[in-house]
Automatic annotation (TrEMBL):
<dbReference type="InterPro" id="IPR011006">
    <property type="entry name" value="CheY-like_superfamily"/>
</dbReference>
<dbReference type="GO" id="GO:0032993">
    <property type="term" value="C:protein-DNA complex"/>
</dbReference>
<feature type="domain" description="OmpR/PhoB-type">
    <location>
        <begin position="129"/>
        <end position="225"/>
    </location>
</feature>
<dbReference type="GO" id="GO:0005829">
    <property type="term" value="C:cytosol"/>
</dbReference>
<keyword id="KW-0238">DNA-binding</keyword>
<dbReference type="InterPro" id="IPR001867">
    <property type="entry name" value="OmpR/PhoB-type_DNA-bd"/>
</dbReference>
<keyword id="KW-0597">Phosphoprotein</keyword>
<feature type="domain" description="Response regulatory">
    <location>
        <begin position="5"/>
        <end position="118"/>
    </location>
</feature>
<dbReference type="GO" id="GO:0000156">
    <property type="term" value="F:phosphorelay response regulator activity"/>
</dbReference>
<dbReference type="Pfam" id="PF00486">
    <property type="entry name" value="Trans_reg_C"/>
</dbReference>
<feature type="DNA-binding region" description="OmpR/PhoB-type">
    <location>
        <begin position="129"/>
        <end position="225"/>
    </location>
</feature>
<protein>
    <recommendedName>
        <fullName>DNA-binding response regulator</fullName>
    </recommendedName>
</protein>
<feature type="modified residue" description="4-aspartylphosphate">
    <location>
        <position position="54"/>
    </location>
</feature>
<keyword id="KW-0804">Transcription</keyword>
<dbReference type="Pfam" id="PF00072">
    <property type="entry name" value="Response_reg"/>
</dbReference>
<dbReference type="GO" id="GO:0006355">
    <property type="term" value="P:regulation of DNA-templated transcription"/>
</dbReference>
<keyword id="KW-0805">Transcription regulation</keyword>
């Protein structure tokens, strides 16, 4: 498992540190998030083989994060919780969790159960998320379809390519020239202001989530999470 990667999300820093140490020999890369939104942001940016979520994560709870991740990817998600009641466990499984671990847990048992999950997936290569989700904005990268609050919105191929490029690289500023080079390529003929026109129609199409696309005056555009 040298090249495998793990995402841990728990609001308790001590628990994160303990799990990171516990799995240090099993995974080559381990990231920790302190809340649900931070976990989703990390998941969008990296490729993971396993995700472990605390059920009571701050900002967005573990089941909410699990549902979001399962919409984006087939990566196995495990929920850990202090609650052992059957309704809690069933709720976790319905959200897409592969397993449900009750705290406190034995380290050796947790390692064994995670090994079983990974062995079942060892012939399935980890892949980037098949969809990008920003609250009610859902970008299905396989079908090239965009949904706003579960309603599909029609985009031109160039509008979709612009949205996908920007959303896959949140925080990165793209000049108009960079966008033309990447999205249009050598076949482009016209003014750099063509980009502005496409961004305007794209923003109108994805309202009320248009504010994710930020104008950097005199430079270009950036996507904010």
């Amino acid at each position: 498992m040298e090249r495998s990667s793990l995402l841990i999300a728990d609001g308790n820093r001590d628990v994160c540190s303990h799990l990171k140490l516990l799995f240090s020999e099993m995974f080559g890369s381990i990231d920790c998030a302190a809340d649900g939104i931070a976990a989703i942001k990390l998941f969008r940016r990296h490729v993971y083989h396993l995700v472990i979520l605390d059920a009571m994560l701050p900002v967005a709870d573990g089941r909410t994060v699990c549902r979001q991740i399962c919409k984006m990817s087939d990566v196995p998600v495990v929920i850990i919780s202090e609650r052992s009641a059957l309704p809690e466990r069933l709720s976790a499984y319905r959200s897409g969790a592969e397993d449900y671990i009750v705290k406190p847990f034995e380290g050796d048992e947790l390692l064994a159960r995670m090994n079983i999950i990974l062995r079942r997936r060892e012939h399935v290569p980890a892949k980037p998320p098949r969809a990008l989700i920003f609250f009610g904005l859902y970008i299905d990268t396989r079908s090239r379809t965009v949904y706003v609050n579960d309603i599909p919105v029609p985009l031109t191929p160039k509008e979709y390519d612009l949205l996908l490029l920007l959303s896959r690289n949140p925080g990165q500023v793209y000049t108009r020239e960079m966008l033309i080079d990447i999205v249009w390529g050598d076949d482009f003929f016209g003014s750099p202001r063509t980009v502005d026109t496409h961004i305007k129609t794209l923003r109108n199409a994805i309202r009320p989530y248009h504010e994710h696309i930020v104008t950097i005056r005199g430079v270009g555009y950036r996507f904010d999470e």
